Amino acid sequence: MFLQGKKVSLPKTVEVINPYDNTVIEKVGSCGLSEIPRILETAQQGFAILKQLPAGDRSRILERAAGLMQERKPDLARTICLEAGKTINEARAEVDRGINTMHLSAVAATRLAGETVRFDLAGPTKKTGYFTRVPLGIVLAISPFNFPLNLSCHKIGPAIAAGNSVIHKPATKTPLSGIMLAQALVDAGLPPAGITVVVGPGSTIGNQLVKERATRKISFTGSLEVGETIMANCGLKRVTMELGSNSAVVVFKDAPLDYVAKKVRRGGYTLAGQVCISIQRVYVEEEIAEEFLRKLSLEVGQIKFGDPMAEDTEMGPMIDETALNKAAQFCEDAKKHSGILIMGGSRQGNVFLPTIIFNAREDALVVQEEAFAPIVVVNTFKTTEQAIQKVNNTKYGLQAGVFTRDMNKALECASGIDAGGVLINETPTYRVDNMPYGGTKGSGIGREGPDFAIKEMTEEKLIVFDQLP
């Protein structure tokens, strides 16, 4: 646990395991329910300070924290690589993104403002007024294992920018980079009570913090199932839910297939497919399916997998045994649903081999559910309408990609696909940290991106003036 600006030892510990070779990286104190009163008391103290801190000061703290993250980049990247199993190059890229997210949060702190309100729409009046944005209170930030630094920054940066205090519950498997982020913030001048990092099971400590009246906002990234549990237990408070997906790409016959195959290679197998917007489904116009499948197979067959610390490794391990077993189950189910296994479908140590499945039925798990694995299923379509229908025939709707030179088809897909983002001639895995990011249906509620998240971490307060007679 990280409390009042320092690491706190606790009687119970949790082991942080390297997912590549199962070695123990570090042991971290695991919080129990008995710790909640002092966690909440600290967060309330932090909020009392931060809500009075000028926006310029909050912005400067976030900028200094970004600078410290830059100085500490080698240690942060190595930590992410070891605890999450990302390749060292993926980890370095995540640190760069986290630094940028903190810069964007610093800017958002200076832009946060209200506006004047007209009171003369129904007739003459001497009233004048405006609304401003004020912080909510304690923000509970619950982050996942796959982007343990940057997705934490997406929650913590805007929360602090708005004047809230933060209780951060990182994934129990990847808490180390979150603690390092909190240390950077305190070293940058954040009041020590402004951020607390809690490590422990979501089913106990996490669930109780969700229920606490003192927490006024929950920002969660994770599975649909856990998101639904949080919503059922959180009570009357603000929520942002960034949940699962089985993101799709539509490839029309006029698209440059070599280019698209390279894009799918990157978008489907980065972090071993353990990305919310990882490409899981590819719908290819029927007459080019065989050619595209050949080109994609050649690309995916070149992926070098193995030790994530090696500079030339492109794909590392999955996070744990449960994830490996789930990936194998999805492959077996696909074969039972007419899917043809083109490559992969098995494991090598803790690495699940890059996998391509062709022509699985639309009711297969690999089409309908979130695999969160290096598995791409390639299916076909005949018409634009059919492609849109297939993309939409799922409970998820985070992001989708469309490849075509035909503007009419592109616009038809952009309008018809039910997702938080539709990317034309780009994969759904694309994200820059200033864009509004979030989904429809079972993929979530609300939007991330500091300029958007900060509004969801504040509320409008109306001020009205009238002239006395």
How would you describe this structure to a colleague?
The chain has 469 residues and is of the alpha/beta class. It is 39% helix and 21% strand. The protein contains 15 helices and 22 strands. The protein has helices spanning 36-50, 55-71, 73-84, 88-111, 150-162, 176-187, 202-211, 224-233, 257-269, 289-300, 321-336, 365-368, 384-392, 407-416, 450-456; strands at residues 2-3, 6-7, 13-17, 24-29, 115-117, 128-135, 138-142, 165-169, 195-197, 215-221, 238-242, 248-251, 281-285, 340-343, 347-348, 351-352, 355-358, 375-381, 399-403, 421-424, 444-445, 458-465. Strand 7 (138-142), helix 5 (150-162) and strand 8 form a beta-alpha-beta unit.
Summarize this structure as a short list of keywords or feature phrases.
469 residues, alpha/beta, Aldehyde Dehydrogenase, Chain A, domain 1, Aldehyde Dehydrogenase, Chain A, domain 2, 2 domains, globular
Mean pLDDT: 97
Rounded to the nearest angstrom, the distance between the terminal CA atoms is 59 Å
- The percent range for strand residues is 15-25%
Taking pLDDT < 50 over at least 5 consecutive residues as the criterion, the unreliable ranges are none
CATH class of the largest domain: Alpha Beta
Rounded Rg: 23 Å
Instruction: List the domain count as a whole number.
Output: 2
Explain briefly what this protein structure is:
By secondary structure, the chain is α/β, with parallel strands linked by helices.
